[in-house]
Amino acid sequence: MASTKSGESKNTIQEGRIRHALEERQQEGTSFRKLAEKYWVPSSTLSGLERGGLICQEGHAHQQKLTPAMEKALEDWCT
Q: Are 23 and 41 contacting, i.e. CB atoms less than 8 angstroms apart?
């Protein structure tokens, strides 16, 4: 279970960098290439999300056995 937790925080950090990059794109019009270098996020990810794509967790939600709320409740119960 420890690997899941580190994976969750890694995903959260990555999603935070993506969010900041897209916000900067909207405010300043910075190119995807410069944002990719600055935030360590693939430029293809940024362009796909700006065109209306989903983040990984949302895109694979139909494959999950538990909803995020159920996962959180289970995690809280275990700890």
A: no
Query: How many whole angstroms from its chain centre is CA 9?
Result: 10
Rg (CA), the chain: 15
Q: Note if the pTM is more than 0.90.
A: no
Residues 18 and 41: beta-carbon distance below 8 Å: yes
DSSP letter for 66, please. Answer: S
45: CB partners within 8 A, 6+ apart: 18
Give residue-wise pLDDT tens across range 38-70.
Answer: 999 999 989 998 888 887 777 888 898 888 889
CA distance 11 to 62: 18
